[in-house]
Amino acid sequence: MYTQQDEMRLYEQAKHLLTESAGMNAEHAIDQLKEAINYADWKYYVQSNPVLADQEYDALFKLLKHTEDKNPELVSADSPTQRIAKGISERFPTVSHLVPMLSLDNTYNADDLNDWDRKCRELAGADVVEYCVEPKYDGASVSLIYENGALSRGATRGDGIMGEDVTINVRQIKSLPLSATLVAKGVEQIEIRGEVVIHKNVFEAFNKQRIAEGQPPLANPRNAASGTLRILDPAEVRKRGLSAILYHISDYTLAAGTTRPEGLDTHYNSLQWLYNMGFPTPAKEMKVFTHIDQVIAYCSEFEQQRDSLQFEVDGLVIKVNSFAMQERMGMTSHHPRWAVAYKFKARQATSKLLRVEYQVGRTGAITPVAKIEPVPIGGVTVSSVSLFNEDVVREKDVRIGDTVLVERAGDVIPYIVKPLTELRTGNEEIIQFPKNCPVCESELEKQPEEAAWRCININCPVQVAERMIHYVSKDAMDIRNLGGANIQKFYEQGILTDIPSIYTIDWDKVRALGGFGDKSITNMQQAIEQSKTQTLNRLIFGLGIRFVGETTAKTLASAIMNLRELYDWNIDKLISLEDIGPKVATSVADFFNREENRHMIDKLDAAGVNLVNQLKGQQPVDGALTGKTFLFTGTLSQFKRSDAEAMVEEKGGAILGGVSAKLNYLIVGEDAGSKLEKAKKLGTVNILTEQEFMELIKSVG
Ligand SMILES: NC(=O)c1ccc[n+]([C@@H]2O[C@H](COP(=O)([O-])OP(=O)(O)OC[C@H]3O[C@@H](n4cnc5c(N)ncnc54)[C@H](O)[C@@H]3O)[C@@H](O)[C@H]2O)c1
Ligand SMILES: [Zn+2]
């Protein structure tokens, strides 16, 4: 349909229109906009592979609408503002909708909503209009027909008049009832509309799989849902686990002599009515308000929770609640006048990848960072995006000069969803990973089973600084006041050189730097002094041995009396400890074999830092949990893992490093993996949720 040249030209045209359409002659602007929007629609609806971010598309659409409003004589019947997008592929038979399936009008802020409310009340001829507000699910719309109580047809929206008949795929959606007690209510036929969606977790797993198979990841759950709904193999559709949420009754026929079922008077009641029959509707999520101010307040409140929802929601839909009023208000050829979408702040944008920089971390791992043309996304300007490691660069096949789709969702750091390969000119450069450390020039190394290239020079300046920052961090030696910024500064000035030098800081030099008051110096000195008596496990963690996290550090600490004992531990002996596998054992043995590390430990010892396990040899705490063993797995949401472990230990319980016959309790958070599986297989472990764990702790007092 479009050649690659067309694609490149139209993309450039779209970008150009977004920034420079102001001075254009209206007729020319309209032609260009129509062309660009038609192209974006085709990519989006037919190929399920958008080239523009939604807000870019919406901005073009608005521009077209605005230009046409000012020049009504230039509006043509084929304008995207006059119809629903082209959404029909040739894969499925087409069917007509009983009632046109329209799009929604969009609003982006309180002003837009106020305008809409004013128009609404005018059209409805009422001072007060009741509004029903519900989530705008980001998926693919479907129309379902139930005849004599049974699901008889499922269709996509298509162009709004005709859709694709995807009945067989719709039947694979487990949350949709194949039959319902409609006949008993006198309903012979009903058309219900809703959104086919994909759970965020399912989407993530699906994209991982695609990447593993060498395919580009999909841009968002919406494209995944609409793509899946149009796969030709129903078994595959079933496997992908689609869900559906129904939000509208568009048509119904009653059996002769039946009166309208109670509930079919307002939107709110109709969705409750469906819900009570077993249909998945937003019955629990929707809210009714009588004033637009309440609607506006609810919209901004709801936007805050967007990340905690199971499904992607890109806004809220506000609907006039009364069916009689809806009828009076009618629709345009594009959208009903009685409903409007309030769209959340955009999270995606397209930009150009300018170059790649390489950062060196504490363990020497090299992280490629893409520098992109700055773009605003969700309220901040993004110009740097991590590419994580070489594998990710290769999997996504991003190149310098590529146009890339960037996403920034909530607290998640921005990432590149995909390069827009259809826009390549041929001048893009494959990203060449450096062979040498960008800081110290040492040759980089990569273990076959690892994703990251590393600088293994222990004296590499960035690593030295990062190691100190880790050493003082809260979960390690907890030296407050001496944070990352100070360490960086002292290191640059030669006041700090390595971890032991923290204990021999020349405070006169610090004073000479300026900017440090007596109080802040005293605070730092005290915190450093206190760190000398920290427990051995914190010291081991603070040393920054690769693969040694807080839990492994505890395991190691509790196996010894003095840190130097580890000099003699070989890999076999280390593996005999709970939760320590060959990878960790090799790293630990290697660390303690190195002369420079032993030298560092000597210096810490000389500075008075505790190397002894003071807890060992003491009677274990006698508490309600004495003799009981615990392990935490998955992402905990109610408490920090280290705090929960401390609670167990305070009551005499022990933390194990892995699942074995010795384990009594496994506490599972979100996304628990192999440990949970193993515990289930063993059958002897008590598996607790976080809530159940808290109850257990409370019950033992
Ligand atoms: N990035 C691109 O290149 C590109 C191209 C075309 C379209 N788009 C995006 O798609 C939008 C247009 O698509 P659209 O016509 O589907 O409009 P839309 O997504 O803005 O809103 C309409 C749709 O919302 C859905 N919806 C979800 N929850 C709903 C609820 N509770 N009640 C009613 N409807 C609900 C329905 O499927 C309905 O058709 C554009 O605004 C743009 O954001 C993007
Ligand atoms: Zn280096």
TrEMBL record:
One example of a Gene Ontology biological process annotation: DNA repair
Gene Ontology molecular function: DNA ligase (NAD+) activity; metal ion binding
Positions with a binding annotation for NAD(+): 54-58, 103-104, 134, 157, 195, 319, 343
Source superkingdom: Bacteria
One GO cellular component term noted in the UniProt record for this chain: cytosol
InterPro entries in the record: BRCT_dom, BRCT_dom_sf, DisA/LigA_HHH, DNA_ligase, DNAligase_adenylation, DNAligase_N, NA-bd_OB-fold, NAD_DNA_ligase_OB
Gene name tied to this protein: ligA
EC class of the enzyme, as a word: ligase
The protein's required cofactors: Mg(2+); Mn(2+)
Keywords on record: DNA damage, DNA repair, DNA replication, Ligase, Magnesium, Manganese, Metal-binding, NAD, Zinc
Protein's recorded name: DNA ligase
Gene3D superfamilies: 5' to 3' exonuclease, C-terminal subdomain, 6.20.10.30, BRCT domain, DNA ligase/mRNA capping enzyme, Helix hairpin bin, Nucleic acid-binding proteins
HAMAP family: DNA_ligase_A
